[in-house]
Amino acid sequence: MKILISNTLDVPLYQQIEDQLKDAILKGELSEGDSLPSIRGFANDLRVSVLTIRRVYEELEKEGFVVSQIGIGTFVSAQNLELLRDSKRRLVEQKMQDMIQTAKMLSITKEELNAMMDILYEEI
């Protein structure tokens, strides 16, 4: 698993890391029971403060994505996986509603819109 962070984005570092870890869990790159790196080791690898990684792990634990065991480590928990999937579906649905409204405004039929969607989906 590769975590990429940028100081030039408006998104805080901890949020960039947290979002990428959630995505890795959702995509199955991290499975239930997998161990996350130690806070210190992860901070060194990413060249960020240990406080940043501690915040990431605390947020993930609050949301049910990981469980921490004192003296043992932090492990992936699939407890909130379905909730994350649902929130991502809602985001796509919102974007699709915008697309449908625009298509209707431009008198594009449902069939034309579906054909466009099929073509674009296959290209990506």
Total individual domains: 2
Structural class: mainly alpha
Cα shape: elongated
CATH-defined fold name of the largest domain: Arc Repressor Mutant, subunit A
Q: Output the radius of gyration.
A: 19 Å
Helix content: 55-70%
CATH homologous group name of the largest domain: Winged helix-like DNA-binding domain superfamily/Winged helix DNA-binding domain
Query: Could you list the spans in which at least 5 consecutive residues all have pLDDT below 50?
Result: none
Write out the strand line-up for the largest beta sheet, numbering strands in chain order: 1-2
Mean pLDDT across residues: 91
Sheet of most strands: 2 strands, antiparallel
Q: DSSP strand (E) fraction?
A: 5-15%
**Distance linking N and C termini:** 22 Å
Q: Supply the CATH class of the largest domain.
A: Mainly Alpha
- By CATH, the architecture of the largest domain is named Orthogonal Bundle
Task: Chart the SSEs and their pairings.
Layout: H1 13-27, H2 39-46, H3 50-62, E1 66-69, E2 73-76, H4 81-105, H5 110-123
Antiparallel strand pairs: 1-2
Verbal overview:
The chain has helices at 13-27, 39-46, 50-62, 81-105, 110-123; strands spanning 66-69, 73-76. The protein is mainly alpha-helical and 124 residues long. It has a two-stranded antiparallel sheet with strand order 1-2.
